[in-house]
Every structure is written in structure tokens, then in C-alpha cells.
């Protein structure tokens, strides 16, 4: 960070409409260039990405260092975080199942080696796999998950990267009780917390309150809004309630949306008052549903960050 205590990164969900239909920024270097320039033009400072994009990065840019240089040429500072998206399965890859822990460690060793050409802040994980039992992950499963993520976090710190946990509303570790117990078992030196404001609201978890409880281990945020709580147990829908739920066609909205459930002003005051400095990531997951538009949502969120949230944070800084 330079002279600004908070900077804004953009998580690279994106779709645009072309002559042949919708496409994303990974379609070509030209599409990526246009995406990055639009994100920079509205005032974002950096981007986040998914680590499964590594193969497209190697194919199109040759290395992650080359890709980051391409990002910088479009006016952004760097890649801040990467989200580790994998298919969780109890027979091969599940934090709650000790028999899969060797596979998880091997996976992260390979992943970190592939991304070692740049300096990331965080590698973000879903700490619990899908768990369709209404009771959620049992207590011994929470302990097993805390154990493996502690080992992974110790490994990531050898690369100067935080292992940080992101709780989706449809995942096994989703309720406030589950979250609190998981972090009570997880080593705070190695297992960090990444707050997603909308995901917590959907699961009926107050994002401000859970942040304040665990703020000392928070290493980042996804700021996005929602208009809905999951009141129909949609979290149990297979394979992913974000796309499978019949009751709610669109879960996520940009900051500043009408009827949004996230109190971003209270969130930003808490961020400020707890002394957080660093990056906040804006995410627009599936923004194009119900006639939405990624470019529009991105511009609206950046306006809200600049004209509302930065002002709240800077009120205290200026005193």
C-alpha cells in the first residue's frame, strides 16, 4: 500500500455480449485487454482471479509473471488474490475427511509452485466441502478441516501467501455456530478469514458481527450485495445452490442496489474502527442474470466505493 489505507481490487467474474453471443475476458488477449482497461478506467487498483485460470495463463501469456505484466500495462497494479476452486468429493478431496488430507497438501504444493512467479496476498479456499446433511458438518469434521487448513496455511506462508477461508452459503461450514467453532479449532497463525458480505447474509449470518468477532484474522473481503436470505434450505441443492435453486434466480447484486441486505456503511465503519488496512475486493458473481450487465454493475460499485465507502473510512483517518 502507498498513502491510501484501503485499495480496491476486482474479482474477475465477467461476461460481455459479442456478435456471436456472450464471451468472457479469457477468450483472447484482446478480450482480456478490454476487460482490464474497463476495470482500470472506473478506478479499480488491481484484480483478483481464480487459480484454475492458470492453464489459460500459461497458454496465452507463457507465465503468471507475464500475465501480471500484461495486467500492469493496462493500468492496474497487480494480481492480489487467487481463489482455489476445486471439486470437493469425500472420496478424494474433502477437508472434513482425514484420508484426503494428503491429496490436499500435494495439490497446494503444486498450486503454489505454479503461482510462485508473482507475489500474492491470499489464496482463498472454501474451508468445508458441500454437506447436505441438515445438521451440517459434525464437530469432529470441523476439527479435521481446521487441522488440514492449518497445515496448508503453514505451507502457503513459506511462499509469503496467506491461506484464507471464504464461507459460501451453500457450503458445509456456513452457519454462525459452525464458523465460530471452526475458527476456535483453527490455528490463527495459519488459518485466516476472508469475509464475503453477501454469502454471509444469505446464510443469515450478520457480516459485520462475524467480522468483528474474528477481525484479527481477516485478510480480505468480497464486497457484494444480496436481496435474499436462504429461507427454503436452497443450500442443500445439488450441485450448487447459486445456479440450481428454483426459488431465487439471482442471488448477487452490486453494492448500492435497492433492497440490498448488506449494511455496507456499518461494514466500512467496522473495517475502519478495527484498523484494517489493505485490499477490499469487489465481486459480481453472475451479475448478468435477469438482464443485468457486468460493466454496469462494476461502474456502480466503483462509484459507491469511491463516493460512499472511502468517505466513511477516511472520516476517522482524517481526525
TrEMBL record:
The keyword Isomerase applies. Keywords: Carbohydrate metabolism, Isomerase. One of its GO terms (molecular function) is isomerase activity. PANTHER family: HYDROXYPYRUVATE ISOMERASE, INOSOSE DEHYDRATASE. Transmembrane segments: none annotated. This is Sugar phosphate isomerase. Residues 36-290 form the Xylose isomerase-like TIM barrel domain. It comes from the Bacteria. The lineage of its organism: Bacteria, Bacillati, Actinomycetota, Actinomycetes, Micrococcales.
Amino acid at each position: 500500500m502507498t498513502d491510501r489505507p484501503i485499495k480496491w481490487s476486482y474479482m474477475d467474474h465477467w461476461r460481455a455480449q459479442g456478435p456471436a453471443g456472450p464471451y468472457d475476458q479469457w477468450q483472447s488477449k484482446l478480450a482480456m485487454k478490454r476487460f482490464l482497461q474497463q476495470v482500470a478506467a472506473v478506478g479499480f487498483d488491481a484484480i483478483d482471479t481464480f487459480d484454475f485460470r492458470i492453464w489459460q495463463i500459461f497458454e496465452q501469456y507463457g507465465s503468471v509473471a507475464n500475465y501480471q505484466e500484461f495486467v500492469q500495462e493496462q493500468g492496474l497494479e497487480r494480481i492480489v488474490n487467487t481463489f482455489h476452486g476445486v471439486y470437493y468429493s469425500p472420496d478424494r478431496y474433502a477437508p472434513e475427511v482425514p484420508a484426503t488430507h494428503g491429496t490436499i497438501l500435494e495439490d497446494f504444493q503444486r498450486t503454489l509452485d505454479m503461482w510462485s512467479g508473482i507475489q500474492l496476498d491470499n489464496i482463498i479456499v472454501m474451508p468445508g466441502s458441500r454437506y447436505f446433511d441438515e445438521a451440517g458438518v459434525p464437530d469432529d469434521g470441523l476439527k479435521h478441516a481446521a487441522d488440514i487448513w492449518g497445515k496448508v496455511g503453514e505451507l502457503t506462508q513459506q511462499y509469503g501467501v496467506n491461506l484464507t477461508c471464504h464461507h459460501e452459503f451453500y457450503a458445509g461450514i456456513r452457519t454462525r455456530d459452525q464458523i465460530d467453532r471452526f475458527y476456535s479449532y483453527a490455528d490463527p497463525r495459519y488459518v485466516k478469514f476472508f469475509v464475503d458480505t453477501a454469502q454471509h447474509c444469505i446464510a443469515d449470518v450478520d457480516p459485520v458481527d462475524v467480522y468483528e468477532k474474528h477481525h484479527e484474522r481477516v485478510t480480505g473481503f468480497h464486497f457484494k450485495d444480496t436481496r435474499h436470505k436462504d429461507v427454503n434450505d436452497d443450500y442443500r441443492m445439488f450441485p450448487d445452490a447459486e445456479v440450481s435453486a428454483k426459488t431465487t434466480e439471482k442471488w448477487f447484486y452490486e453494492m448500492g442496489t435497492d433492497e440490498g441486505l448488506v449494511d455496507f456503511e456499518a461494514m466500512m465503519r467496522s473495517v475502519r474502527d478495527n484498523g484494517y488496512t489493505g485490499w477490499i475486493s469487489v465481486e459480481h458473481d453472475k451479475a448478468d442474470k435477469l438482464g443485468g450487465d457486468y460493466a454496469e454493475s462494476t461502474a456502480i460499485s466503483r462509484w459507491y466505493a469511491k463516493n460512499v465507502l472511502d468517505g466513511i473510512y477516511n472520516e476517522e483517518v482524517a481526525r
